[in-house]
Amino acid sequence: MSTGHPDTLHTDAHKEGGDPAVCSALSLIAAGALSGFAWLADDAANAPDLTSRMLLSRMAARELAPLDPVQAYQREIGMDEAAVEEQIWSYRALLADLEARTVPRDWWERLISTYIGFGLVLDLQRELVAGMSGRPAAIAQEALADSGLGDFVVERLAPAVAQEQQLAARLALWGRRVVGEGLGMASRLVSEHRELAVLAGIVPEGTEVSAEVLSPTMGRLTSEHARRMGRLGLTA
Amino acid sequence: MSTGHPDTLHTDAHKEGGDPAVCSALSLIAAGALSGFAWLADDAANAPDLTSRMLLSRMAARELAPLDPVQAYQREIGMDEAAVEEQIWSYRALLADLEARTVPRDWWERLISTYIGFGLVLDLQRELVAGMSGRPAAIAQEALADSGLGDFVVERLAPAVAQEQQLAARLALWGRRVVGEGLGMASRLVSEHRELAVLAGIVPEGTEVSAEVLSPTMGRLTSEHARRMGRLGLTA
């Protein structure tokens, strides 16, 4: 783990994990893991067939994988546990809010909510951890790797969308609603956690978080969204 | 895995897994895993603090562990996949019904529902797989081992119950409601799956499932319930 000399560990910690922005980013990863677990577990509970239920349950369980390395790292660098807890809890609330604002009316809408909404949550995290290096960066990268969820959704949704024009129209509308709520959440999260935006290089140090400053990030999130809708044969 | 000779595997399968009752029992274990996952994930989503949420999320994820060995075994003995799927799905519905009938009004009632209701679901499974031997028995035993959930609930509930007489009275009443629904579910499940009751030696071959025949089993489930309530300082 450490290179042996206690001072080395201390210096590392001071350089990387001791940085409150890095710690905040890792708390976001932990919150993302908990939210992802809850989101996919809820989908699993509503799955109409056993195969989907098993797949989604297992995907949900795998979402928890980052918790151990994040907690181990935060403990190692001696982060204040109560502060970390509060941070994770507040990120979790921000992310859960998106799920609460986009309650699906059926299985198809649920798949869209997850593909588009949860997909955006992951993209947002990818944007915000981009400025990290070393072990925290590796932990984040591992946590945000593609889980195959997109392929799962596209496999199920695309054929249904291709066959039913009315369903396609309804889901295109729903996708726009979900991404709208998602971008709103993203902008709230960045505004409330300026340290992450600075760490990620989204906001230059000393600059206010504004719609203009966030515009390139929001643009990237929107493009990813359009790419996803495209895979379903839907217009973004 | 097998002892080498293909006939041996086939004989084993015929003796153990080929037995429809053993297959049914393993489907119950798989359904129990899915239900346990959903149950604890729902508890995690409603946990009032981060420590409980993390603990319950992780416990939920661990509930899925039996799925792989059960599915591997059922595939190995060449069980009809569609039949297994239908079996697991129908068991799942029976188990989920208990959760639906005991919707808690707050965190304390939720802890009781899980401790008492989910505890009874596990006890019922233990009763029903008792007649198995060999690998199916080992899979079931592993699946139904103590996960530490009871200790988690007692640690949280017992002090609150000891301090507030009104809460204790309310939760004692709620515990009775939950166990009543649980015993009802147990009796429905056994009546609908006579093969399990015969396998477990609860019902002698050729005998109808009746309240009288089930009475020793229900008695054991009730004793376990009383023991759990006792750990909380509540009267069953």
From TrEMBL, chains A, B:
Domain Ferritin-like: 21-199
Name under which the protein is recorded: tRNA-(MS[2]IO[6]A)-hydroxylase MiaE-like protein
Source organism of the structure: Serinibacter salmoneus
